[in-house]
Amino acid sequence: MPLNKQGYGVKSNSYQAAGELAGITRLVDSFYENMNAFPEAKTIRQMHPEDLGESRKKLTYFLSGWLGGPKLYSQHYGGVSIPNSHRHLLIGEIEGDAWLHCMEKAIANQPYEESFKTYLLAELKVPVGRIKAVCAEYN
User: What fold, for 19-138?
Assistant: First the structure.
């Protein structure tokens, strides 16, 4: 039984609710535009290369599989442990909150159902929490 009446998180329902690859690409583009624009995101922006092309691609591909669509990240880059791949960075409360703020604003700008916007933001808080925990352990 799904945890929500729309069935988000089941099979490809979330991927479809996000507008499939095109919708995820728009979300990621909006997210990185926010990261460039919001002063509170300066620290996390500095953790990325100047050219965000590869970062955009990796996040788009990751979200595709994470939302139940094609596993593009693993097809192109191999397996990934999101927390461990960030452990070399100094990511704490401030950085995690800045990332979530950029994503929250990006989600708000998408033509998603309100129920999916709420679901997606809540789900994204889980890996952000895990990243902060791993970074605290290693730094």
Answer: Globin-like (1.10.490)
- Considering the entire predicted model, what is its pTM? 0.94
Q: What is the rounded distance in angstroms from the CA atom of residue 108 to the CA atom of residue 106?
A: 5
Tokens coding 111 = 């033509």
Cβ proximity of 112 and 19 under 8 Å: yes
| Residue 36, C-beta contacts closer than 8 angstroms, at least 6 positions apart | 45
Q: Tell me the pLDDT tens digit for each residue of 72-118.
A: 999 999 998 999 999 899 999 999 999 999 999 999 999 999 999 99
Degrees (nearest 5) of the Cα angle 91, 28, 57? 90
| Two structure tokens written together for 131 | 């990243």
